[in-house]
Amino acid sequence: NRIGDIHIEINGNRELIVEGGVGVYEYKNDFIKLHIKNGYITVAGVNLDILNYGENTITISGKISSIEFA
Predict the structure, then answer these.
(1) Which of 20, 25, 30, 46 could bridge to 6 as Cys pair (CB 3.0-4.6 Å)?
(2) If you write DSSP's letter for every residue of 11-68 in order, what string do you get?
C-alpha cells in the first residue's frame, strides 16, 4: 500500500515494514507512533520492537493488533 511516498508491507500480524520518509515519534512496548510526510502511523500490539531503523526503512516486529493512519 502506498500513502504519498510511503510504502507499507505487512507480513501477517508479526511484522510491519515502512519505507520512505519516516521517523519514530513515540516508542513504547505496546505502541509505536511513526511520523510520515502527511501525518502519523500508529502501530499497537504486544512486545513491539524496532528491528531495523535505517535511513529510509523501519521494520517493526511483535504481535501487531492494529495500524492507524492519522
Answers:
(1) 20
(2) ETTTEEEEESSEEEEEE-SSEEEEEETTEEEEEEEEEEEEEEE-SSEEEEEEEEEEEE
Q: Are 14 and 63 contacting, i.e. CB atoms less than 8 angstroms apart?
A: yes
Angle at 19 between CA 4 and CA 2, to 5 degrees: 35
Q: Of 15, 32, 16, nearest to 24 (Cα)?
A: 32
What are 17's three cell numbers? 515494514
pTM value surpassing 0.85: yes
Question: Distance between CA atoms of 43 and 32, rounded to whole angstroms?
Answer: 5
Q: Cα–Cα distance between 26 and 9 in angstroms, integer?
A: 20
